[in-house]
Specification:
The protein is built from 13 helices and 16 strands. It has about 425 residues and is an alpha/beta fold. It has 2 domains: about 20-315, TIM Barrel (Alpha-Beta Barrel), CATH 3.20.20; about 320-410, Immunoglobulin-like (Sandwich), CATH 2.60.40. Helix 6 packs across helix 7 and helix 11 (about 270-280) runs parallel beside helix 13 (about 305-310). The protein is globular and about 70 Å long. About 50% of the residues are buried. The structure holds 2-acetamido-2-deoxy-beta-D-glucopyranose (2 copies).
Length: about 425
Amino acid sequence: MLPLRGVCLLVFSILFPAKVTLLENGLARTPPMGWMSWGYYMCGDDCGRNPLKCLDEKLILSVVDSFFDEGYQEVGFEYIIIDDCWSEKSRDMYGRLVPNKERFPRGMKFIADYIHARGLKFGMYTNIADVTCMLYPGSKNFFDIDAKSFAEWGVDYLKVDGCFVQESYLDTAYIDLGRALNSTKRQMVYSCSWPYYLQYIHNRRPNYSPIAKHCNMWRNFHDVALDWKYVIAIIHNYIDEYPKINEYHGPGHWNDPDMLILGTRTLTPGQSRVQLAVYAMMSAPLLLSCDMKMITPEEKQLLQNTELIAIGQDPLGIMATPYRLSGVRIIYVKKHLPMKGDYYHSFSVAMVNLDQKPSKFTFTLADHGISAPDGYTVMNVFTKVYEKNVTSSDEFEIEVPPEDVTLYSLFPL
Ligand SMILES: *[C@@H]1O[C@H](CO)[C@@H](O)[C@H](O)[C@H]1NC(C)=O
Ligand SMILES: *[C@@H]1O[C@H](CO)[C@@H](O)[C@H](O)[C@H]1NC(C)=O
């Protein structure tokens, strides 16, 4: 995104070639950004009774137009992903999935072409069982046929759910479907729900090695829903799991805390800043799920804040280290580009206040291992103002409003 960061990436990739045990299909070098239907539209198949939550061609094309016309594409929003409930209830005579004839009358290739003509990318959904989570046809026993359909339609990203199967099948099916996708020769970001189902449905701790070897991204935790309390649960889960998941996180393979809920009239402005800042600090995928027309001007400005997006899209892709000062006060510290010389990285520091009253954060940069000898220049990410220059021993004393975040990027002087 920023030329300086690009140069640093090149230098970095020469010095530190990626580990060979991870999936390297060249995709998702930064966490995918885009829009996915599920969070807001859910199944969206009852358009007669619920026309405002209708998952159809018109909806998908309107999201494409919003991305293209309203500045989202320029800041990196790219993938437009159709989740569950897109097909007919039965396969055709050749065993192929068929797009729902009422809602997707011109088929998926038409949608893919429309998306690709605007320089954007197309995502779809399936499940590894014989039905999807919402009981549409699933891909079990049809991996090759379905992979071929997705490839022929021009799909660039596939979300694969894991409802209704045995624990042991999860460990083979995701690998087998990944192979089927690979053998189509079409590049598709492979998004797995594998560890989520192991941990929360089958009560087994995931072994992330095979998951990171076969998937570009994976869901670790429950679905988000349209309520602030889900965002809080996600934040706490990723702090608890951080020591186990952070080593698998990086270019080409990402932990995925599920969709953003901005644009759904669910969050206050402060809460929106918290969700987006924490996701950017984690280098999480940024997938909106909303009626694009409901995004407020304030949310739009936040989603198109290039300094914030640059933190999330930093080429190093390092998950911020979380420090819980209390149950409601968290500091995240993230190392990123650009570097000064060979030693001194830039950092971002997020002070997240989940309390319903203001909280004070007092710390020095040295407390968090941020210690370039000539100090740092400090930019407030939300205002883009360079506020001050500091040394690593200067004390920060910052009051963060209720359910809000203060976010600084620090560049070595
Ligand atoms: C298939 O897998 C190979 C080996 O991991 C990889 O180099 C290649 O890029 C993959 N191709 C596609 C289309 O995903
Ligand atoms: C920080 O230091 C740089 C380099 O010395 C200087 O150009 C800049 O004006 C300083 N910024 C502030 C806010 O003091």
